[in-house]
Fold:
Amino acid sequence: MSFMVIAAALLSAFILQFLFQMVQMRSFNKYYTRLRKMGRVAIGKAKGGFHAGAIVMFAIDQDGVIIKGCFMRGFTMLARFKDWDFFNGIDVGTITKNDCATIGVSLRRAVLDASSNYNTIMSGGEVLEKPGLLTRIGDRIYGVNKKKA
Structure:
């Protein structure tokens, strides 16, 4: 009997997480579509782990100047995107840590990631996804990507 209660609770938590994630993805898609209609979009992420993560998106013109921006910051699946005009009129490729001095750490990391991603793409490079925590742990356990002696 207790196994069934635990299984039902886990299943309910999984379904609830899935539904909240769908709502969050719909928010992302809505804001991305709106920004994409204005021009190109620069996106930056700061993964949270055990602290709040952040995602920023900037609509940019042909010269790389930010037209409009939005961000999502939070620890839970309840976080939603909000409009953000803090960087409007600034060239996304020239944003530095000093420009982000008055914003939170996770948001600063996401903005600098968006700037770095923009510079990488404009120089002809490819933005590589950083491996997540579980991938790094698995790689360490199985010896993947270890330096050869």
About this structure: The first strand starts at residue 40 and ends at 46. Strands lie at 40-46, 53-60, 66-74, 82-84.
